[in-house]
Amino acid sequence: MTNLTIFDKHLPLRAMDGKQLEHDLNHQFKFWIANLLSLKEDKEDAYDVCKSAIKDLCIGMGFNEIKQMFEMYVDSKLELTPISNYFDRILLGKIVNSYKKIMAQKPKALPEQPKPDQQQSKKDIEAAVTCSYLEFKNTGYVNGVITHIYNYLDSQDKFQGSKTDDEWVKYKWKVFGFCKKIVKENQNFAKIGVIIEDATTMSKRKILVKYYKQLK
């Protein structure tokens, strides 16, 4: 996932300008958390409900620490079992409490060195990217599950190009909005058993296709 500028902010939320904080929560952070937790469009309102709670419960944290907290949650490093496509105020409270409990007990340590299995995992995802690109080059389509491929390339800043962080976030929301409209227009097909891809995955696939076209 792209290293957004908000995660360079070590300033606690209580010390931030109110308007800037609201802007960051409504844009860069919202898109980041939706991707991290794999929130689909039907869960979009869940974040909006939790936004005020984030400001209250995380008031002493900066965005960099909030990012670390949620990444620990999805990596099963908290005393909680991570759930994909789920987020509500109760879960947020549990995440914050578990994180604070662990951090209060955890001594400061040197950064961990990459483990052999992590290195192998990187080789596997790079191989998956190569296979996906070759498939597109030969067929013109990107099929199958692509979320892990998209997230890896996004983390390597392959999609953003010359766009600023704000421009990139706005572009992703624009593509998502377009895909959301397509999904809505095709709901009648879903009723008769046709599988309609969710807007989040569809938008990632479109961005991935555009990137592959630039490589040809």
In short:
With 216 residues, this protein is mainly alpha-helical.
**Proportion in β-strands:** under 5%
Major sheet details: none
Helices and strands, in order, run as HHHHHHHHHH
Mean pLDDT, all residues: 82
How would you describe this protein?
By secondary structure, the protein is mainly alpha-helical. Helix content is 63%, strand content 0%. The longest helix has 24 residues, at 116-139.
Supply the key terms.
single chain, 216 residues, mainly alpha, 2 domains, 10 helices
Topology readout:
Layout: H1 18-26, H2 28-36, H3 44-57, H4 63-74, H5 89-105, H6 116-139, H7 147-155, H8 165-185, H9 187-191, H10 199-215
Helix pairs in contact: 1-2, 3-5, 6-7, 8-10
